[in-house]
Amino acid sequence: MTTVAATRGKAYFRLAKLDIVDYYLGVVVVWTLLAPAARFDSGVLASVGVFLLGEVFVIAAMVALDDLTGYRDGSDITNYSPDDPQRKRYRKPLVAGTLDEGQVLRFAWATAVVGALLWLTAIAIAPHRPVWTVVLIVVTYFFSLQYSWGVKLSYHGFQEFFIAALGWALVLAPYGLASGEFTGFALAQALLFGLGPLLFGVYSNTNDVDGDRRVGRPTVAALTSPRGNMFFVIAVSAAEFALIFAVPALGGPWWFPLALLPTLVARIWQLWLGFALGDIMRARLLGIRIHRITVLSLVVVNLVVIA
Question: Which end of the chain is more exposed for a tag (fewer CB within 10 A), N or C?
Answer without folding.
Answer: N
